[in-house]
């Protein structure tokens, strides 16, 4: 039952039942599960259960819940016999940054419905208490008596990084403690106390500067502020009245239609005061251009929850990445038992899941977040009978979602647009040769027609040294997944034994391909990269080449042209066994469409990736700049867009609000009060990349003041990202506190709050000014280093209609660890230059 369908009295009974508690079975894959007592806490902020060895951790915050699913749909339930539990008594709660599941079985179906409806109601944000004060009070109430003592308040202030004398805290405590029961604060009293310490001096100064020193803003003052600072246009009286009515808490101010400091603070901390343009929460790019004109959100080894060797494969990862805006998912298919194809990471100890279950999940979640096309990147290792089973499942489950349009791709001059392909699933895979007998149900495809990451491939790398115009050709057969042995072998090799072997030919490998599966491939046929040159441009080709970080050896301008009509996919190397991610920006700069990421691995690279796609409603498609779509463009030039206006970004870093202690702090909340500073980084073209930081504010994480201005000159704002990072200064280094990354084109002007990701209360208050800049922009240090490395190499071909798959690795390991390096040793000077070049590439990636 949807929460909207319940009346107020029904929902009150639902909340009461949840707070009273229910005995349910918690499944963890064990034989019988664990019987626990689950209940909603007093303030409706989290679910708790008992008994538990870790009582403080036996809870799930309502704010952390992503989804509540009815029935037996999680992987945990699949470990039990089909008839073991009544599906009407089962439900799963998906929560946390890594999307864990809490799988529960109630005694009665009515109890399960109560919890499902109640949780969905709470997730919708329907609450009668202030969420921020509620969360802080709940965490501070250590003994659970519903009130806060002076000792608990001191602990809370230390946790919030508030450095106040004890006497001052006692005075504020006594001021807020207004009821008959002295010595403790009720919820209402705590709200008063929290308001005292939270009043914003910076916002107060802004307010009185526009109110002629009055304590309130009238409608005229408010309009002047919004037009002058926030650059808002077309304001009406109705709009201004709506702002005051919505954000002003004081009845007297409402009566006079003015905004006091509390109302002004509420407005500035609302989404209206966020640095991110709210219009960019919706699709705002032209979606009618060919697919090759877009960057596409792409997942690598989608099914994995962790590393590439030992982690679990889970169906839920497909729902997670699709709902996160991903539009290209990987399906690694192998023969399974009982004729059922399975998905897992081949030649490793990762667990296995059914192909059918994955396709059912994709069918359910493909278009819940975005209506634009989903690409299934199928890695086919199956026998012909199981390939036929795969094709059968794809047709039966996806039905009209599967793109089976009767299009002659050889007659098409361009790929279809995301708009035309709305609601469609495209299958990327191998395709039978056109000259094969039409009646044949299967046929051979050569290794050059595969997109098989596991096959051994041989490519050549040209390494131009800094002084010698001659080239060295390294033969690089792609390594199979014997990671431990090959890594150890590579480290044992002596640098002086590196040698060169040039063997231009190898025996072709073939595999059998089912006609049924081949016929599902329309616009994304897998071919080898050499066919780009030999066959010309065909819009449905999808090429694979192992380059191992050598894509940067192409001239960047050539690589841009290579991308102007075809699709190109870049994926992490097999050497990233920890599922780490590389820097996607270098490949976006060259126009690479599909930069595949390990969505299961949080970190800076994935944060940058998310920020990129958020600027177009997180629909999974970003229109490339015009210079990348047609014309000549070289991303590593000092002036890549001669004649175009440059941009200057002026950021005034004003203050911080409720900055927490570092997550990995040794003493947790009991650690010392932080000394924060802000670092701002521009991520974009090499000429634009730069970092600046503020001074350090000692002993204040609750409301530090910086009042510092940072200025950045930017050549190509269309692809630039701005990354705000907050650090805690330490005598021996610095500790990471939080970050927020925003596309420059999505930044709002004026006074704005930069909320740190995953921290609803923590923010940096800034003033943003963006304007055109005349004259030549000075090259950044990063561009100078890039030129010094001479990453512009000979090679690359311009052709169309292909999708290249290029794995990226870090370091010299792939060069050292090659069986074919057995002939003439390299001079030691050349080796040192290769090492220097590789080390610098590692810094970039």
Automatic annotation (TrEMBL):
Q: Does the keyword Glycoprotein apply?
A: no
CDD domains attached here? C2_PLC_like
**Which parts pass through the membrane?**
none
Indicate whether Calcium appears among the record's keywords.
Answer: yes
List, alphabetically, the Pfam families matched. C2, EF-hand_like, PH_12, PI-PLC-X, PI-PLC-Y
* GO molecular function terms listed in the Swiss-Prot or TrEMBL record: calcium ion binding; phosphatidylinositol-4,5-bisphosphate phospholipase C activity
Main site of residence?
A: cytoplasm
Which keywords fit this entry according to its UniProt record?
Calcium, Cytoplasm, Hydrolase, Lipid degradation, Lipid metabolism, Metal-binding, Transducer
Gene Ontology cellular-component terms for this entry are: cytoplasm
Cofactors needed by this protein, per the record, are: Ca(2+)
* Domain PI-PLC Y-box positions: 517-628
Domain called EF-hand: residue spans: 141-163, 164-200
Q: Which InterPro entries match?
A: C2_dom, C2_domain_sf, EF-hand-dom_pair, EF_Hand_1_Ca_BS, EF_hand_dom, PH-like_dom_sf, PH_domain, PI-PLC_fam
Subcellular localization(s) per the UniProt record? Cytoplasm
Tell me which PROSITE patterns the record gives. C2 (PS50004), EF_HAND_1 (PS00018), EF_HAND_2 (PS50222), PIPLC_X_DOMAIN (PS50007), PIPLC_Y_DOMAIN (PS50008)
UniProt biased composition (Acidic residues): 438-461
- Please report the name of this protein according to its UniProt entry: Phosphoinositide phospholipase C
